[in-house]
Amino acid sequence: MTIPPLIAVIGPVEPDLLTAFVRHYRAHGVHRFLLAFHFPDDTSDNERVQLLDTCGSLGISPALVNVGPWHEYTNTHLRDELRGLAGPGWHLLADTDEFHTYPNGLIDTLHEAASAGTGTVGGLMLDRIATDGQLRPWTPQQGLDRTYPLGGFLTHYLLRGDPRKIVLAHSTVPVSSGNHRAPGRRPANRPSVVVHHFKWRHGVDAYLQQRVTHLADGSWRSSSTALLRESRKLLDHLARHDGRIAVDSPTLRMRPVTINALPAWWAQEAAHIIDAWRPPPQNEPTDTISSPSPSGRSNRA
Q1: Structural domain tally of the chain?
Q2: Does any domain span residue 145?
Q3: Is 153 within a domain?
Q4: Degrees to nearest 5, angle at CA 166 with 261 and 91
């Protein structure tokens, strides 16, 4: 079985992140990258040029470049166009801030998925945070792993967002917005693939405030209130904790992790979260944090 092409929609991220992203997946054996770039209207010409030049310096020609408002369906449409260009077979799906660790290796994971017949491989987001919870910048010299050495389930326990990811899907399997689900196709792989989620970097608070503003005034559109609710939760949390993520909170379960080592606790905790996850009530208060019970299931506190 061959390594599948990587499908990704890239926003206006720092060029160093794109470089780290490509190098990470090349280390997994990926050699074909189908990348779409989406730039919101307020992205500067310099930002666009730097990112596209970085892509070219990595030996990759952008498959698609799109400029305009960011609507919830924008990335989905671009991703599906990329999947069409990729052709039949398996597709590897990842956002630029998602670095996968395959507990059984990528090739063995694909073989197991093919035998299971679900056409999917599932992952779970492990949110990576700086030691002091600050939204820190990073440099290639220090690297993502050392800048954000803590891992935990912020998306699940604080934001009440869907932490599940479809990380590999056969071309015959449709995947939902955000790569969170493949309707009617439950991944069979255990343990789940670790999706190291390096979203909580310098500047994410400004981006989330931009998202809140545009979603609230209707200039960016979404089919649900989830994106707006999750963004407000994070901004409110930062406001209550002097601009930092409360890494000392027992509900967030932050522990030292690295990309190249599977945590001893991963298989059990990931299985509990995936089995227990349910969408939060639409009227859930912004400051609600879901805390893990002894069984691993979520209790709202």
Answers
A1: 1
A2: no
A3: no
A4: 95
Residue with token string 């989830």: 226
The token duo for 32 is: 């074909």
The token pair at 21 is 């992203």
DSSP state, 142?
T
**Torsions phi, psi for 17 (to 5 deg):** -70, -40
DSSP 134: B
Encode burial over 208-237: b for 16+ CB neighbours within 10 A, e otherwise. Answer: beebbebbeeeebebeeebbbbbbbbbbeb
The upper half-sphere exposure of residue 214, i.e. CA atoms within 13 Å in the direction of its Cβ, equals: 19
The SS3 call for residue 263 is coil
Q: Which domain holds residue 96?
A: 6-124+164-189
DSSP 8-state symbol, 199: -
For 237, the 3-state DSSP assignment is helix
Which tens digit of pLDDT belongs to each residue from 180-215? 999 999 999 999 999 999 999 999 999 999 989 988
Distance CA 266, CA 46 (A): 41
Residue 198 belongs to some domain of the structure: no
Q: Pairing state of beta strands 6-10 and 33-39?
A: parallel
- Write the DSSP string, 264-298: TTHHHHHHHHHHH--PPPTT--TT--EEE-TTS-E
Categorize the per-residue pLDDT at 293 as very low, low, confident or very high, splitting at 50, 70 and 90: very low
Whether 19 and 50 have beta carbons less than 8 Å apart is answered as no
Cis peptide before 191 (omega within 30 of 0): yes
Bridge partners for 264 per DSSP:
none
Which tens digits make up the pLDDT trace of 250-282?
A: 888 899 999 999 999 999 999 999 998 888 776
Q: Cβ(217)–Cβ(145) under 8 Å?
A: no
Q: What is the rounded (10 degree) CA torsion for 116, 8, 191, 249? A: -150
Task: Assess if residue 105 is contained within a domain.
Answer: yes
Q: pTM, whole model, 2 decimals?
A: 0.92
